[in-house]
Amino acid sequence: MTFCPDWLMGSPHLDTSSWLYLWVYLVFFNGLWVLVPVLLLVRSWSSLKQLHDITPDDVTTHRKKM
């Protein structure tokens, strides 16, 4: 959202002439802003799915074992 429009329009303020600026600063560090929330969403989704897969019988069986 912050770098892609400038990159697509060829903004002179976004220097991509060096591999360091392009691959490390632009791709890697901005990719973290995409990767981390996606991983958190997947983890939350799987936790919620496990929670909804528990049936009432599983809860009462678990309570009797305790």
TrEMBL record:
Q: Which residues cross the membrane?
A: 20-42
Q: What is its main location?
A: membrane
- Report the Pfam families cross-referenced here: EBP
Q: Where is each EXPERA domain found?
A: 1-41
Task: Output the superkingdom of the source species.
Answer: Eukaryota
This entry carries the following GO cellular component terms, namely:
endoplasmic reticulum; membrane
Q: Which residues form the signal peptide?
A: none
According to the UniProt entry, its GO molecular function terms are: cholestenol delta-isomerase activity
Subcellular localization, as worded in the UniProt entry: Membrane
The alphabetized UniProt keywords are: Membrane, Transmembrane, Transmembrane helix
Q: In its keyword annotation, does this UniProt entry include Membrane? A: yes
Q: Which family does it belong to?
A: Belongs to the EBP family.
- Official protein name in the record: Emopamil-binding protein-like
Which species? Answer: Scomber scombrus
